[in-house]
């Protein structure tokens, strides 16, 4: 039995594509598996089995999230990975933001992970739309994150919600926040502090990662500047790293205007089981 309050319904999903290759799709901090469905369907179309787990403490409320640490989130990814690996010859991991960082953390301890795709890596919220008090004080609040008052402080993700696609972000505005079942529309500082601790862990274990890593990041990311992607690339100096900057999306690259390109670049990088139309080279800028 989980020591955390559980969602009232199962938010996870799985798409079976055979017993060969599979991809574990990991959502971001305060997110939920539903945000990975565009990516999952694209990868499934390319021949992969796909599973999307729910990270520990997510899918309920802020109080439940704040009872977890990044190591609990990693435990969710580890458990889902081993479940998927039992039925497949090869399993890779693709994740957005914290989800991608967790995929790398697991790759550092599990040599059998076939590869990792990291979308919109975030060491710090330093994008062009994050020039608010919370992005300025968060790194300095981290030493005090154990204090209940500080941990519970939170901020609402600002418009345009990481989306360049007007139709998608207008839907977010109409819904007054998160529209993905189980996702939260506020980010507690306590959870952000855990994100920073996870990033510090990656700085330590990154040089040990030998699996191939794909880094995708938006040139105009509103939440995390491309410097986050370059920092990760430098940290992973010992592994095979491929980095692409996308030119028509914001932070949520796996659901925004270039989501199909994200899916196809990922499928190609993981060695898609069957052929599909490759994206035009002009749609992505190799860094």
Automatic annotation (TrEMBL):
PROSITE patterns according to UniProt: THIOLASE_3 (PS00099)
Domain (Serine aminopeptidase S33): residue spans on this chain: 21-257
Gene3D superfamilies reported for this sequence: alpha/beta hydrolase (3.40.50.1820)
Protein name: Carboxylesterase
UniProt organism field: Phenylobacterium soli
Molecular-function GO terms, alphabetical: acyltransferase activity, transferring groups other than amino-acyl groups; carboxylic ester hydrolase activity
Cross-referenced PANTHER family: PHOSPHOLIPASE-RELATED
């Amino acid at each position: 039995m989980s020591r955390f309050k559980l969602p009232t319904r199962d938010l996870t999903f799985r798409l079976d594509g055979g017993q060969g290759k599979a991809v574990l799709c990991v959502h971001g901090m305060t997110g939920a598996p539903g945000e990975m469905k565009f990516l999952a369907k694209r990868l499934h179309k390319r021949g992969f089995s796909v599973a999307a787990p729910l990270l520990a403490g997510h899918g309920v409320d802020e109080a439940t999230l704040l009872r977890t640490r990044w190591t609990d989130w990693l435990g969710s990814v580890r458990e889902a990975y081993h479940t998927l690996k039992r039925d497949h010859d090869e399993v890779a991991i693709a994740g957005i933001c914290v989800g991608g960082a967790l995929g790398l953390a697991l790759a550092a301890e599990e040599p059998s992970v076939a590869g990792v795709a990291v979308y919109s890596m975030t060491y710090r919220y330093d994008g062009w739309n994050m020039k608010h008090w919370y992005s300025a004080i968060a790194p300095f609040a981290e030493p005090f994150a154990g204090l209940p008052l500080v941990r519970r402080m939170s901020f609402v993700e600002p418009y345009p919600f990481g989306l360049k696609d007007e139709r998608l972000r207008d839907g977010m505005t109409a819904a007054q926040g998160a529209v993905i079942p189980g996702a939260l529309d506020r980010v507690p500082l306590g959870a952000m502090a855990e994100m920073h601790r996870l990033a510090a862990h990656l700085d330590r274990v990154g040089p040990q990662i030998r699996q191939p890593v794909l880094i995708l990041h938006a040139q105009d990311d509103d939440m995390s500047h491309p410097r986050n992607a370059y920092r990760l690339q430098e940290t992973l100096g010992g592994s095979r790293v491929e980095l692409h900057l996308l030119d028509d999306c914001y932070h949520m690259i796996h659901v925004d205007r270039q989501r199909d390109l994200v899916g196809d670049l990922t499928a190609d990088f993981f060695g898609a089981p069957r052929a599909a139309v490759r994206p035009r080279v002009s749609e992505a800028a190799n860094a």
